[in-house]
Amino acid sequence: MDTIKILIVDDETEFGSTLAERLELRGFTAKAVSGAEEALTILSSDWQPQVVLLDLMMPGIDGLTTLDLIKKHDPRIQVIILTGHGSTESGIIGMRHGLFDYLMKPVDIGELVSKIKEASAV
Amino acid sequence: MKDNSFGSLCPLFCGLHNKNLSTRERYRCMRNSMLIAMLAITLIPMAIISGINFVQYRQLLQNESYANARWSAESARATINAYLEKMEAAITVVLGSYTFEELTDQQQLDQIFRQLKEEHQGLVDIGVIGSDGIQITYAGPYKLVGKNYNDSIWFHKALTRKIYVSEVFTGFRNFPHFVVAASKKGSASSQDSWVLRASIDSETLDHFLASVNTGALEDIFLVNDSNKLQSSSRYHGTVLEDFKLGNKPKQDDILISGEGSNGSFYRAISRIPHTPWFLVLDHQGYAKREDWHSFKRGLMLTLISCSLVLGCIIIWLSAFIAGKLREADEMREAMLSETEHTNKLASIGRLAAGVAHEINNPLAIIGEKAGLMQDLIEVDRDFRNREKFLGQLSSLQDAVKRARTITHRLLGFARRMETSLTLVHLNDIIREVISFLEKEAAYHNIHILLQLQKELPVIRADHGQLQQVLLNVINNAIDAISNAMVTTNNAMEAINNEGEIHITSSCDDNKTVMIAISDTGPGMSTETMKNIFEPFFTTKGNEEKKGTGLGLSITYGIVQKLGGKIEVNSEVGIGTTFIITFPVYSERSEGNGHN
After folding, report:
1. Domains (ranges, CATH) in chain A?
2. Distance of CA B488 to the CA centre of its chain
3. Nearest CA to CA, how far is A20 from chain B (Å)?
């Protein structure tokens, strides 16, 4: 069985790379990018993630716009918002755009892994 | 804060802007100013109208008294005049009808005297006096034949005039009388002129004057040019006593003047034609009239009673208005204070949310880095000091979790929480919350006692938020009691100590439901109570259970948002009671958009 591929989109590169490494240790294949442009580049390549962990507040293209672009590229990709600037309102808007779930930073790794597995099973 | 209320309405309320005065004194000043202004507005016009009435009515009575004095004087003068004219006519007729010889006949004169006396009241005698002043014949009660009148003024005036009325004098007979004398020229004897004289008792004048007297007359009398009374006066003496007349009228005029203090009478003076007499009549003035006194009494009574009634109404009204204004101002100030408090909480909340957002990202990095280190060390069985590092990283993760709890609570405090309003039974929620907490309470030897009103009306609220409210308050009560037990010096006392939390629910007025949560903890000082709902204010100082200072702020925000109120009463050494009220749900309130 193939490992679950996860793309982490977060302008906090330290966070993204560390989280990617932790997820790798738990058997996932993870890549971290710092913005929407890089994410779209990855998506246009052969490497297609099943789950995207997406920050909301990013310079340039924000999280919700990025969500739309990802869903436009491939609606099957499940997106989990992982943000420190979250609010219920933005979560609800995200849900309307096809968001799978919404988590607040800092997140418990166990909870995150559980959500990723749920998302990949959809 | 700008005072835009009644203070600017009227300059009379000067004291209201005096910052040196206390609030109580400023409202007293306002009430007094209002009282004075209202009294002035009502009483001054009333006093002016009463004054005008007073003057007008007095003028009316003065005019009436003046007219009555004139009428009485004219009437009295006409009466005296008529008597004198009748007497003069009688003397003139006798003088024309009889010759000197006939009149000097004693029998003839006696007969004429008897006839005249029957017709003319007050006639004392008659006599014929020769041109030398010697009385030739005399008919009357005295013996005056041969008396010489040559020295008498009246005799000489009678000789020079057709008919003459004398002043009152005593003469030979020594009692007051006056004479009406007429002279005639030529006779059969050697004498050139002779005089027929009639003497009249002065009391006759008193009699005629008395006949015109009315109740309104004070006095009426005659006085001559020489300021001698010619008739008796009620107040100025008897006949021939001195009386100074003062101003005298010309000819037939009637001179009227107000006399006495405060117009007590009017004096009318008129000359009686062809006599040396002035008629003096003192007519009662308005000041002595009963209707004037009655009017004054009525006016004063009306003025005083109206003033008293108005005064009472104005005192009550000014106190009432001042009270209402004070209440309105206090309410306004309370609302401003409440708004200020809410704004302060909101501002702190927004600031806290911003801080929480900014902290979450670095906190996440710390958490992930620590987590990665933990992962790597766990994988590496040979890592030096492995257990010690894992322990340290675990503590680091705990600290991150704690910080995360704080930032999430801060966001929860600040965020406009998405609520799901449903109809809820408060008693059910209380029981649910107690089920979470009863083990912890039992651990601290605290009994939770419920006294819930059956069939409590439902309220419209968010189930989860209500749970959070009750959890916060009851948790605080447990912490307060348990901390107090721990700090008790005596160990045995601490073991035997038992705490109690009383939770009651009730609805007395079908408009609000009330939950009261009372504990037997150490209570709070007034200063603590003032800050209890402020964010970041905490009294939980120990390291193990250090509070975030957000629990009651969040509780306050939720209760406000649900349209309720939360109050706290506390007494040091006795305990603390939180009282939370929520409006009862009704279809009507729902219809009015009340959530």
Report:
1. 5-113 (3.40.50.2300)
2. 64
3. 10
Instruction: Give chain A positions within 8 Å (CB) of B417.
Output: 88
Q: Which residue of chain A comes nearest to B365, CA vs CA? A: A15
Give the torsion through C-alpha atoms of B92, B93, B97, B103, to 10 deg: -60
Yes or no, beta carbons of A84 and B357 under 8 Å apart: yes
Cβ-defined contact of A106 to B367 (cutoff 8 Å): yes
Amino acid in position B112: I
Counting Cα atoms < 13 Å in the Cβ hemisphere of B155 gives 18
Do the interacting molecules here have an ipTM over 0.90? no
Residues B565 and B581: their CA atoms lie apart, in Å, by: 5
- Chain A nearest-CA residue for B412: A87
Point out the residue among A18, A22, A88 whose CB comes nearest to the CB of B415: A88
What tokens appear for B210 in the block?
């008395």
Nearest Cβ partner for A12 among B361, B371, B418? B361
Our CA-based measurement puts residue B406 at a distance from the nearest CA of chain A, in whole angstroms, of 12
Joined tokens for residue B315: 């005192």
Coil/strand/helix, residue B167:
coil
Domains and CATH numbers, chain B: 62-288 (3.30.450.20), 418-591 (3.30.565.10)
Q: What is the pTM of this model?
A: 0.47
Chain centroid offset of residue B451 CA? 55
Tell which residue, A121, A54, A35, A50, has the closest CA to residue A94.
A54
Give chain A positions within 8 Å (CB) of B372: 18, 21-22, 25
Q: pLDDT tens, position by position, for chain B (595 residues)? A: 444 444 444 444 555 556 666 777 888 888 888 899 999 999 999 999 999 999 999 889 888 888 888 888 888 888 888 889 999 999 999 988 998 888 989 999 999 999 999 988 889 999 999 888 899 999 998 888 889 998 888 888 888 888 899 999 988 888 899 999 998 876 555 557 889 999 999 888 888 888 776 667 778 899 988 889 999 988 888 888 998 888 888 777 777 777 666 667 888 899 988 888 999 988 877 777 788 889 999 999 999 999 999 999 999 999 999 888 888 888 888 778 766 766 666 666 667 777 777 888 899 999 999 999 999 998 888 888 888 899 999 999 888 988 887 787 666 655 544 456 788 889 988 987 787 677 778 878 899 999 999 889 989 888 777 887 888 899 889 888 887 766 554 544 544 568 899 999 999 888 899 999 999 988 888 888 888 887 667 776 554 445 556 678 878 888 888 889 999 999 888 899 999 999 998 765 554 443 3
Six-digit token string for B218 = 């004070």
Short-list B452, B417, B415, CA closest to B433: B452
Q: Which residue of A has its CA nearest to B398?
A: A108
Half-sphere exposure of A75 (CA within 13 A, CB side): 2
Q: Please report, as a single letter, which amino acid is at residue B86.
A: K
Q: What DSSP string runs through B368-406? A: HHHHHHHHHHHH-TT-TTHHHHHHHHHHHHHHHHHHHHH
CB atoms under 10 Å from CB of B41, counted, come to: 10
Is B369's CB within 8 Å of A14's CB? yes
Question: Alpha-carbon distance B291 to B297, whole Å?
Answer: 10
Amino acid in the structure at residue B519: D
Which of B359, B365, B394 best tests the A interface by mutation, with the highest count of A CBs <10 A? B365
State the Cα–Cα distance between residues B550 and A53, nearest whole angstrom: 31
Beta bridge partners of A83: A104
Nearest residue on chain A to B371, judged by CA atoms?
A: A22
- Compute the distance between CA of residue A102 and CA of residue A117 in angstroms, rounded to an integer: 14
Question: Would an 8 Å CB–CB cutoff place B376 in contact with chain A?
Answer: yes
CB B568 within 8 A of CB B577: yes
